[in-house]
Write a structure and sequence with these properties.
Layout lengths: L6 E8 L4 E3 H7 L4 H11 L3 E3 L13 H16 L8 E6 L9 H9 L6 E5 L4 H14 L5 E8 L16 H9 L3 E8 L7 E10 L8 E3 L14 E3 L1 H23 L8 E3 L5 H11 L5 E2 L3 H4 L6 H9 L8 E8 L4 E9 L1
Parallel strand pairs: 4-5, 4-6, 11-12, 11-13
Antiparallel strand pairs: 1-7, 2-3, 6-7, 8-14, 9-10, 13-14
C-alpha cells in the first residue's frame, strides 16, 4: 500500500515579552562593556526573549502558555479547529513540570481530547523527533491531521540574583545563547491550498561513548540546595562537533532523497548562535540555497527554532522548490534532518 504524502499545512510561533538586546543584558547584570563586545564577536546573537521578568524574577510565561499560543496560531493558519486534530506530538527540553505532560496541558487549553498525545524530551533535535513520529504515524493512514509542537523556557533555571561576573564561562554562555519561545506545525495527509510535502525526516543517536555537550539538571525537594549548576554547556566540544555532524546530515538527506546540492533552494541550518550558524553554513557549502536563519534575533530557542525557520521559509517557496533542515542535539549527540518540496 502506497503511503500518503504528508503535507505541512501551516506553522505558528510565539515569543514571550519584549526582545532583550546585548546592551540591556550587560546593563542588567552590571557587566563591563567588553562583555557586550564579546557577545557580539564570539556569539553573534543580538537579541532574545525571556519568559521571566529580569528585574523581579517573576515567571511571566510558562512553556504551556507559549505552546498554546503557537498551537492556536497554527490551527488558525491551517483553517481547522481542535476537532480536526487526531494526533499531537511535542518536543521539549524544558517541560513545565514532570507531570502532567506539557503537551496534555496544551491540548486541554486548545480543546483537544480523545486522541493520542506524545511528549518527547530532547535538546535541539526534539522538534525533528516530534515531526518524525507524526510523519510515521500519519503515513500509516490511521491518522489524518497532527499538531506538532516545540516549546522551550529557560525561566526555571534563570537566577536574576546571580553575580554573572563570578560565574565560569560554561555557565555565562547560557544566559546569552538561549531564549524562550514555542512553535507549532499542522501536518496532514490532506493538502491545503498551498501544498508543501515533508518528503523525509530522520533522527539518529550518535552519542555512544561521547561525553555530553550540555547538561540540564532537574532539582527536587531533596536536592534543591545542591550546589550543582543547573545548566552547563561545553561550548568548545559543540564548536568542534556540530559542523561535521551537520555535514553528515546533509549528505544523508541528499542520498535518501536522490537530490543534488544545486537542487536545494532553501537551507535551514542548525541555530546554536549567530557565529556558529555562519560557520556551519560555510561548512555545508550549498551555494545556490537561500539560508533561512533567525537565531541572531530570537536567541537559541531550542525545539521552537525549526518552526521559526519554517515560518520564514514556507511563504517564500514556489512550485518545485526544495528545502532541507538540519539539527544537531549536543547533550548526548543526535543528528537530524528533513526535506521539504513545494508541489
Amino acid at each position: 500500500m502506497h503511503s500518503p504524502d504528508i503535507h505541512v499545512r501551516s506553522v505558528g510561533t510565539a515569543l514571550p515579552g519584549p526582545a532583550v538586546d546585548n546592551a540591556a543584558l550587560a546593563r542588567r547584570f552590571r557587566m563591563p562593556s567588553a562583555w557586550e563586545q564579546w557577545i557580539d564577536a564570539f556569539v553573534g546573537t543580538r537579541r532574545r526573549h525571556f519568559a521571566i521578568d529580569l528585574d523581579t524574577g517573576e515567571i511571566r510565561h510558562t512553556p504551556a502558555d507559549l505552546g498554546e499560543q503557537a498551537g492556536r496560531r497554527a490551527l488558525e493558519a491551517a483553517g481547522i479547529g481542535p476537532g480536526d486534530v487526531d494526533l499531537m506530538v511535542m518536543g521539549t527540553s524544558s517541560p513545565e513540570m514532570l507531570m502532567p505532560a506539557t503537551v496534555n496541558v496544551i491540548a486541554d487549553r486548545l480543546g483537544i481530547d480523545g486522541i493520542p498525545a506524545y511528549q518527547l524530551q530532547s535538546g535541539c533535535t526534539g522538534a525533528f523527533q516530534a515531526l518524525d513520529v507524526a510523519h510515521q504515524m500519519l503515513s500509516t493512514g490511521r491518522h489524518r491531521t497532527a499538531l506538532v509542537l516545540g516549546t522551550e523556557s529557560c525561566a526555571k533555571h534563570f537566577d536574576v540574583t546571580a553575580d554573572v561576573a563570578a560565574l565560569p564561562p560554561a555557565e555565562q554562555i547560557n544566559g546569552v545563547l538561549f531564549g524562550d519561545g514555542a512553535g507549532a506545525a499542522v501536518l496532514s495527509t490532506e493538502p491545503g491550498p498551498d501544498p508543501v510535502v515533508l518528503r523525509h525526516v530522520f533522527c539518529t543517536l550518535v552519542g555512544l561513548g561521547r561525553p555530553p555537550g550540555q547538561i540540564v539538571e532537574w532539582f527536587g525537594r531533596a536536592d534543591r540546595h545542591s550546589q550543582r549548576p543547573p545548566v552547563v554547556e561545553d561550548y568548545k566540544a559543540i564548536e568542534e562537533s556540530v559542523p561535521g555532524l551537520a555535514a553528515d546530515v546533509l549528505a544523508e538527506l541528499l542520498d535518501h532523497l536522490d537530490w543534488k546540492e544545486d537542487e536545494i533552494d532553501y537551507l535551514l541550518p542548525p541555530q546554536l548562535s549567530g557565529v556558529m550558524t555562519a560557520r556551519i553554513t560555510a561548512r555545508l557549502d550549498v551555494p545556490n540555497a537561500h539560508e533561512v536563519s533567525c537565531v541572531t534575533e530570537t536567541g537559541n530557542t531550542g525545539n521552537a527554532l525549526p518552526f521559526f525557520q519554517l515560518e520564514r521559509a514556507l511563504p517564500r517557496m514556489i512550485a518545485g522548490d526544495r528545502a532541507v533542515g538540519i539539527s544537531v542535539e549536543s547533550s548526548k549527540w543526535i543528528k537530524a534532518g528533513l526535506g521539504l518540496e513545494k508541489v
